[in-house]
């Protein structure tokens, strides 16, 4: 079937670049004869921009949120049935379609957009089960044997693509860790809640590790927790960058917390944040104190100077700190003004003489 081949091709593209999942949803709409489709995590903490949907359904999402319908959506009851059986429909949770038609969510919202019948398909992802939610018109008959057969054909294609996307994302993160090869820095990635944390060594090997609280003192990790949760479940274009310095067991550490650059992550993965931990020598600590106390540099600016002095280019610094190149250049201009220098060369010379 031509549409199945098209779906396979789009899924291959989506493993490399998450923006293609919208095209995948459009393809599935055509394949099933649906009116709209959306990929939804069963865990509400990963909702928001970490979803993808067809063009037609995407047009209704602003109204869905603005009207507060996400707080009173009876289709949430479909999720556990979908997880148990592999697929489910809203016909499974209503005694009759007449009763469903009188439910405010359908009567006042979905029916106006002709999205009256739902089929939810279970997909296994690194973030647990997600639902591929297909929306049909109000008169669509109960799920047919042909649709069940199509679900069985499509679901493994999605799950294989999702597994491949995860593997590619890990490979990219391991490559990212090479920025710090030979610097003595450790690179960690973790989810917004700090519940899962993976250590990546400079050889690019990945292993399960600790929670966020083991990277930062308790008071720092607790204050960061809420901000991480908000950033990781909101606008994917937001850039998080925080720098910390603290002493533990008679050692001084710098930790840079950044939102993982978009090309490193995939929205099916729970890992959205990087932590770069470096043990500082006493000499480095003195230099950083002078930059902080003598020149009024912020922690983020100090990290920028450290990276520049270690041989990193502004483009590499932008990559490491999950910033735009223009933002790094603007930050450097601010550093020049505070330190009374005119170029990167002069800044590095100043740092070397501290």
TrEMBL record:
Transmembrane segments: none annotated. One of its GO terms (biological process) is regulation of DNA-templated transcription. One of its GO terms (molecular function) is DNA binding. Residues 294-351 form the HTH luxR-type domain. Signal peptide: none annotated. This is HTH luxR-type domain-containing protein. It comes from Cohaesibacter celericrescens.
